[in-house]
Each structure stands twice: as C-alpha cells, then as structure tokens.
C-alpha cells in the first residue's frame, strides 16, 4: 500500500469518528443533521481511494447504518427525528453518486491513457516503457521470494530482407502476426514486449529454466509453421531466441546476457534457441 492510500485511509477513519464524537457531545442540541453531514467526507475519501460502483453503494449503506445506529442508541427510537435523517441521507446519496460517477469516469480515462503509454500501437503488445517498469518490480520480487525469473530476447531472422523484398507494409503485417502468434503460446503470467523494430522480449516469472526453454521452443515452432501470406504467396518467417536467467545481476546485465544468447543463436544458423550460461 502506497503512502497516498495510507493517508486517505487515515483521513477516512478520523472523519468517520468525528461526527460520532460530536454527536455524543452535542446530544442535547438540535445540531445533529449538520453533524451527520460530516460523514460525507469519509464517504468521499473512500470513493476516491477505491473508485467503483460497488464501493459507492457499500459506502453509502455503511455510513447510513452508522448514522442511524448512533442516533437511535443516543436518543431512542421515538426521540429521533427520522424524517430529517432520511432527508439528509437522500441528499448525501445524490451528492455521493454524482461524485462517484465523475470519479469512476475519470479513473477509466486515466487508465486508458496509461495503457496507451505502455502499449505498442502497431502490435498492441507492451512497449519498452512497460518493460522498464515491470523489471523494476520483478527483479526485487524474485530476490525476496527466491523464485526464478527468465528473460527471452528474440527477433525475426532476415527481417531487413523481408522489408526490402515485400515492402514495409507487409513487414508491419509480419510484426503484428508474430506478436499474436507469440501471445497465443504464452501463459497468463508471462509478458510480451516489443523492444523496437523486430526485437521482442518475453518476461517469464516463476519458471524453471527447462520450462522456459519449452516455452521458447513452442513459440519458435509456432512462428515457423505460421502462414505469412504476401499476394497469395506464403513467405517463410523464422525467429532466433536467447534465454537468460536472473542470477543477481542488474537489469541491464540481464538484458545483455539474453541479447548475447540471441546473437549466438544467429551465429549458429538462426531459427535457434540459445541459453546463456553466464
């Protein structure tokens, strides 16, 4: 939980207790409608911290129950001005649901914007920015839990020749088909990133080296047998892959390990998989 959410939760707790304390203190006055209006503050804080319609409905119900329970316990059922309490509740419900509508809509827009900044527009997979953010969390997590983490770097064999022979439009189509083919052969926990050009990275958490190699080979075979069609003609496309296991190095060093393994796959004839032994 980040600091901002902790502050909001503390705010919610304090502003929830405030009207209850004031109600007990001002029990002999007629100020309780004003006092209970303060409950809108923690309700707003809850909606802002956890924006959803379920949260909004649950929050309004909980704070209404708190208000009625305290009032009835303090004044007794027949001494409580229920009409004022109900009217106040209805007004607050309208206010809170209006606030919730705008908060939820704004949250959706922000999420969409964030996704756009992390998604490669051509292939619709993650981009380099996502890779950097992911690795900043994945490496420390692997260290804390002691679970293995692998990085696969791959690119298309002779991709420049594909572009030169068939044009960049077909080259873009190859990249899109490749991305979909790879995604179809990954698990839900894995991540696919387009690093730039024809180079991709695959993030493989909590997986043994043997399992990672099987995943890589499944992808290699799937690409090799995929139909890349140009004007009715099937074009052969293959990929080379390099695998590196995290062993305590920096993110840059891990990437270099996988990249060197990829280079070795190219050197060995392409359409190969090489595991880094460093």
UniProtKB/TrEMBL annotation:
UniProt KW ATP-binding keyword: no
SUPFAM superfamilies to which the protein is assigned, alphabetical: Nucleotide cyclase
The GGDEF domain, residue ranges: 147-278
InterPro entries: Diguanylate_Cyclase (IPR050469), GGDEF_dom (IPR000160), Nucleotide_cyclase (IPR029787), Rev_trsase/Diguanyl_cyclase (IPR043128)
Keywords: Membrane, Transmembrane, Transmembrane helix
Gene Ontology molecular function, alphabetical: diguanylate cyclase activity
Segments passing through the bilayer: 7-27, 85-104
PROSITE patterns in UniProt: GGDEF (PS50887)
PANTHER family named among the record's database cross-references: DIGUANYLATE CYCLASE DGCM-RELATED (PTHR45138:SF9), REGULATORY COMPONENTS OF SENSORY TRANSDUCTION SYSTEM (PTHR45138)
Protein name, per record: GGDEF domain-containing protein
Gene source species: Halalkalibacter alkaliphilus
Organism phylogeny: Bacteria, Bacillati, Bacillota, Bacilli, Bacillales
């Amino acid at each position: 939980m980040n600091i901002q959410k902790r502050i909001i939760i503390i705010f919610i707790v304090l502003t929830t207790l405030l009207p209850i304390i004031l109600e007990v203190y001002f029990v002999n006055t007629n100020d309780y409608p004003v006092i209970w209006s303060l409950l809108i503050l923690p309700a707003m804080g809850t909606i802002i911290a956890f924006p959803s319609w379920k949260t909004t409905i649950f929050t309004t119900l909980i704070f209404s129950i708190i208000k009625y329970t305290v009032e009835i316990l303090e004044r007794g059922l027949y001494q409580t001005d229920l009409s004022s309490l109900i009217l106040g509740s209805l007004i607050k419900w309208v206010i809170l649901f209006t606030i919730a509508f705008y908060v939820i809509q704004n949250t959706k827009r922000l999420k969409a914007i964030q996704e756009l900044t992390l998604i490669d527009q051509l292939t619709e997979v993650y981009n380099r920015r996502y890779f950097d953010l992911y690795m900043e969390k994945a490496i420390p997590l692997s260290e804390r839990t002691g679970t293995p983490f692998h990085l696969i770097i791959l690119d298309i064999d002779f991709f420049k020749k594909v572009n030169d022979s068939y044009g960049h439009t077909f080259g873009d189509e190859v990249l899109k088909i490749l991305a979909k083919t790879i995604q179809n052969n990954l698990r839900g926990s894995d991540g696919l990133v387009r690093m730039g050009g024809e180079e991709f990275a695959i993030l493989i958490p909590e997986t043994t080296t043997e399992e990672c190699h099987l995943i890589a080979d499944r992808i290699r075979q799937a690409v090799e047998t995929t139909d890349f069609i140009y004007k009715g003609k099937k074009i052969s496309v293959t990929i080379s892959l390099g695998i590196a296991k995290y062993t305590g190095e920096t993110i840059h060093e891990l990437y270099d390990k996988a990249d060197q393994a990829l280079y070795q796959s190219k050197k060995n004839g392409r359409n190969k998989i090489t595991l880094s032994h460093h």
